[in-house]
Design brief:
The protein has three helices and no strands. By secondary structure, the protein is mostly helical. The chain has a domain of 29 residues. The radius of gyration is 24 Å and the shape is elongated.
Length: 69
Amino acid sequence: MKLTKQHQGYVSEYGQFLNKLKAANPSIEEGQREGRAIHWDKQPATLSDQARDKASRVKQLPYVYQSKS
């Protein structure tokens, strides 16, 4: 839903650049989808996975460079 009728045909220089780039190389969008699938579209962790991750963490000392000797 457009709130205003003003500037409906306006496309910024950045938008024009992207439109030309996508027209010249249509595989860009597929590459973006693949990258998103690798980094973001993951299955939620199960409760057992969350418990295992929590149990396997090593507690960090208050001052990182301090060592117990």
